[in-house]
Amino acid sequence: MLNQPKFADDIMTLFAQRKALPVHIPVIQPADPFLDMAGEDLRRRIFLTESETGESLCLRPEFTIPVCLRHIETASGTPQRYAYLGQVFRQRRDGENEFYQAGIEDLGDADIAKADAHAIRDASDTLTALLPGIELHTTLGDQTVFEAVVAALGLPDGWQSRLIHAFGDPALLDSLLQSLSQASGKVPGIDDRVAALLDSGDEAGLTELIDRQMVATGYMTNASRTPAEIAHRLVQKARLSNARLDAKALDVLKTFLALDTPMRDAADALAAFSRIAGLDLDAALNIFNARVQALEKAGFDLSSSRYRAAFGRPLDYYTGLVFEMSAQGAVLAGGGRFDRLLTLLGAKAAIPSVGFSLWLDRIAAARAVKSERPSQ
Amino acid sequence: MSVTIALPSKGRMKDDAMAIFARAGLEIVNIGNERSYRGVITGMDGAEVAFLSAGEIARELGNGNIDMGVTGEDLVREDLSAADERVTFCARLGFGHADVVVAVPDVWIDVDTMADLGDVAADFRARHGRRLRIATKYWRLTQQFFSAQHGIQVYRIVESLGATEGAPASGQADIIVDITSTGSTLLANHLKILSDGIILESEACLVRSRSDVRSAPDETLLDDIVQKIQTISA
Question: Domain residue spans in chain A?
């Protein structure tokens, strides 16, 4: 075991003052929830093992998922703020494979703007307490605004979900925008019978055809995608195949994604963008502006933070706010809103959630640099 | 000083590899009896031949336990992370052709490309209460292709050690990543390859382990073998 950083107690004291309940999360965790939520790519980066009975286990790679699972299992009421501090284990080519993280998960607070603002402020206050006088840079993004832009452009559903899915992955989003700006023409890879049904818009006929084919070839019709689901998506795809993203919409999306502005000006910049683009973004911008006001009310200094429109995380459980805090080029804290996570993990009702995590190894390094240069 | 060259220990791969070496003027003789797993190259002192399974050859090249070997590119790229930093592909040998492909049930008439598959994977959990499942024995190649190249993050791999092509019909997985040479097995199991679903066009290769501790005479010996094989396989 790595020694706990000396400032660990200070963090937990601070978290307790912020009304966050400390939770104990076992180091050994079932691996499935992590792989299910974050994807197979995580497999290379966690330490996996197997129980005697064949269950996949891993060393805790992060805290958010187990904290949420624990919340569901203990059937604790909401709202509830949880605090954690402990080691996490990840395979990294550069850097240590085990390090400490601490953070707060805020589950079930219906006041989105206030909860967002508290997560940002708590992360910032903790870093400032640990690194007095340090110059902290905060970057914020908001998936809700991107979703509103895509919806207001009136793009077809299929495209909207593709774009939202790619948000936060610049390379993927770029190639998607490019492919959407070219019409694909006729649907490839289908035979004449299917094409005829498709031309006549006969979705029921398509469903029946697929169903018969599945039965004839020995596929179970209930084990995976159903005939109706396949037929429906084919019809949707055919409708999109002759459409293409027009130059104006492409231009609007690119202009939006290039927005990168000081937080103080972000509300004005977004308002100007929506006016010039002729898009009604009021609902999303109200949320955005309420968060800015809540941040000011919570005493967060906006001057060192920026809003970057393209900033997001390409995992499907993140929803609204994302943020990152860095100093001297190192990311010291990351956080965001994950309103979909708890239901994905099995919660019966939707639970709005926001949280952040601090990288204690990087904070320790920043403290060491500071103490070497006390005059700065 | 000596170098170890590994050849496949059985089957078509072994016969074809031996034939290539023979055509290059490198005659391989087994030590002891014909079924022994060690050999030498006639007239080439300092070159030892080991007969190993194709999978072991890939792994041992990565470990640096053997200096050169004949094995499938798919096995090397699957077994070794950062393969191009650890080995050099010196020659493509023209046999053992097999493509590693993404194949889906052919009744998925709405899915023709990886982008289509990305759409399906994205809302699979909402529709079916679980992630899209891929049966494969190619964990690494699948992850690189899906996650890094096509930005598809949410899916689960179901390990399959044989008869992978049967997994979708039996409900163990939704789609597969597997090797195919003629495509007939996929066809017989009502699977189709996505139009941009070829992950790797693999064949048997002469592969050299990158090592910075070999002596100069050993390097020269390996250079000589590479040059002879390249001449006839070009």
Answer: 1-134+334-376, 139-171+246-327, 192-241
pLDDT at residue A376 is higher than 60: no
B98-201: CATH superfamily:
Periplasmic binding protein-like II (3.40.190.10)
A373 falls in which pLDDT band (50, 70, 90)?
Answer: low
Query: Which chain A residues are Cβ-neighbours of B127 within 8 angstroms?
Result: 225, 229
Test the A interface: residue of B107, B172, B177 with most A CBs within 10 Å = B107
pLDDT band at B233 (very low <50, low <70, confident <90, very high): confident
pLDDT higher than threshold 60 for residue B33:
yes
Whether the CB of A225 is below 8 Å from some CB of chain B: the reply is yes
CATH class of domain segment(s) B3-96+203-233: alpha beta
Cα of B110 to nearest chain A Cα, Å: 5
Q: Which CATH architecture has domain A1-134+334-376?
A: 2-Layer Sandwich (3.30)
The residues spanned by each domain of chain B are 3-96+203-233, 98-201
Residues of B in contact with A190 (CB under 8 A): 109
Tokens 């911008």: give the residue: A285
Residue of A nearest to B119 (CA): A162
Identical topology for domains B3-96+203-233 and B98-201: yes
pLDDT at B170: 86
3-state percent breakdown (helix, strand, coil) of chain A, nearest 5? 50, 20, 35
Distance from the Cα of A76 to chain B's closest Cα (Å) equals: 24
Smallest CA-to-CA distance from A209 within B191, B103, B107, B174 is with: B107
pTM flag (> 0.90) = no
Tokens coding A298: 């919570």
Q: Which pLDDT band, with edges at 50, 70 and 90, does A15 fall under?
A: very high
ipTM score here?
0.86
**Residues linked to residue B92 through DSSP beta bridges, in sequence order:** B205
What lies within 8 Å, CB to CB, of A183 at 6+ separation is: A241, A242, A243, A244
Which pair of structure tokens corresponds to residue B185? 């097995």
| Averaged pLDDT, B215-221 | 91
Alpha helices for chain B (secondary structure H):
11-23, 54-63, 73-79, 83-86, 114-122, 124-128, 139-143, 167-170, 184-188, 216-233
Percentage of chain B beyond pLDDT 90 is 70
